[in-house]
Every structure is written in structure tokens, then in C-alpha cells.
Amino acid sequence: MKNYERSQFYFGDVLGNGRSGVVFAVKICGEVGALKMVELYKNEYLLKEILNEIKIYLGPLMDIQDIYTPKLLKFGILHEAFVFALTSLSGKSFAELDDITEREKQFAIEGLQAIHARGVMHGDVRMENIMVDRSESICKSRVRWIDFAWSKMGRDSKDFNRELIELRSLLGMTGRSDS
């Protein structure tokens, strides 16, 4: 993994907080994105999670990045102290919005199904992990899944179905069979 110096990073706004800490808007080497980082030596389980996330992005999710997931822009070590992943910006989380459209909900379901089709169990289906970018207009929303730290490869359709049922419940779409 490449080591980057602190002077290469231009930190912007705080985008959110997660288990691994604060997520920042950052510019590095001309790339602007969401920076997630974990201390290299303090929390072994968090280090394993971010390394897993990078592995999932570089492996099974490679061909759906920027469609159903953010694009992994850079990853490496920051100032010999943190492991980081920089992904493209993805808007606001479903948890932040009170006007999620039926179309956006359907996009979230399609995204999870695309992730499952690559053999990946998301592992952390929550409204905070579904992002929507309405930068063009509400009728051209882009919905993407984030936070693959708890993801794992799976083959059991029952496990995939459980995540899909969990998502439908979160979205208030239980009892519907429209996909």
C-alpha cells in the first residue's frame, strides 16, 4: 500500500460519523471524495474492516462502482499512522432525507440485488448506508450503497433474501412483490 503524507490531503467538511470514526470530504492528488480512515495500530478489528472494504471494492464490486456503489478512488496509508479509503461522493443518506421517492427506494433494492448478484452480503443494511445524489434533479437521482466493512462473500440465497426483506422493511415496502 502506498504511503501518503498529510500535506497531500486537503480536508473539507465532515460528511458523517461511523464505527471507524469521522468521514471527511477530502481532496488528494486532484481527486475529491469521501475519506474513511482507521488508525493503523490501535484497533485491529477496525483495521480488518477497512481492509475488507477495500478488498470488496477491488474484487466483486469493481464492475458496479459508480453505478450501485461509490467508486474507490484511492486507498493507502496516511502519514504511516492510518489506513484510508477514498471513494467518490454520493450525496445524502436515506436517514437524512424525509422525502425518499418510490423510485429511489426501488433503486436501493436494485442496488442491493446487484451487490448480491456478485456474491456479496452487505452485512450492514441501514438507512445510513444508502446514499442518494440528487445533484441533477430529483427525477434523475442516483442511489448508491456505502460501507462494506462488514461485507462478506456468500452463496446462500436465504441470507441474500434476509437482507432484501430487511431492506424492504426499512423502506416501508413489506408485503410487496414488485421486484
UniProtKB/TrEMBL annotation:
SUPFAM superfamilies: Protein kinase-like (PK-like) (SSF56112). Residues 9-179 form the Protein kinase domain. Pfam families: Pkinase. GO terms for molecular function: ATP binding; protein kinase activity. This is Protein kinase domain-containing protein. It comes from Glomus cerebriforme.
